[in-house]
Design the sequence.
């Protein structure tokens, strides 16, 4: 009876060690890229409701509110300068950069958010065509993000984009947050799911061997 209890104690200890290793590998060696969400977007020059105002026509600025979120449960993120580029698409044949904004490099704790609310002076936005009910902007974010832990030290490139449709009030059409998606692959983004599945398969095989 005593030897049986000792065996079970050894098995439980082994299972605890395996679980701890999996947790460390998942949370400390394979971080997820941060997410970027546009919560507000306003282009004064495209506000048709105040088209008679010379102030509106002269105000060539873009106001935006963007959320930068680190969803990792156990790893903080080190951001290089974050470049936010605004491209205007007045028609299907023309796309050009109208402005840029740079967030200085910073550190973000795990599961924390940072909000960037700024007004950007543009290089000029063509007068709104009254026959068109909305215009499209492309918002592009590019940076390098590093994660540091006892088991992981690496920095990868993050490039994400989103289309923002602006209506006749100069505001974005969507009432919900607009999430930017990858246009380029960093060094740690897409391998996350496959890596975790491999760990799950390995741990399951180990348990079967023990039992």
Sequence:
């Amino acid at each position: 009876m005593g030897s049986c209890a000792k065996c079970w104690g050894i098995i439980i200890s082994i299972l605890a060690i395996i679980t701890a290793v999996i947790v460390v590998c998942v949370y400390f060696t394979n971080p997820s890229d941060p997410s970027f969400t546009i919560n507000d977007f306003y282009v004064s020059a495209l506000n048709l409701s105040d088209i008679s105002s010379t102030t509106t026509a002269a105000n060539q600025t873009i106001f935006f509110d963007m959320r930068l979120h680190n969803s990792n449960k156990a790893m903080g993120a080190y951001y290089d300068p974050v470049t936010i580029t605004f491209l205007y698409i007045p028609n299907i044949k023309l796309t050009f950069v109208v402005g840029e904004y740079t967030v200085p490099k910073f550190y973000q704790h795990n599961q924390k958010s940072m909000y960037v609310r700024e007004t950007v002076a543009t290089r000029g936005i063509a007068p709104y065509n009254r026959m068109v009910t909305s215009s499209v902007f492309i918002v592009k974010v590019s940076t390098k993000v590093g994660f540091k832990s006892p088991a992981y030290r690496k920095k990868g490139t993050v490039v994400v984009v989103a289309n923002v449709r602006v209506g006749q009030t100069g505001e974005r059409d969507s009432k919900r947050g607009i999430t930017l998606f990858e246009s380029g692959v960093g060094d740690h983004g897409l391998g996350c799911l496959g890596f975790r599945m491999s760990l799950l398969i390995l741990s399951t095989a180990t348990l079967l061997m023990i039992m």
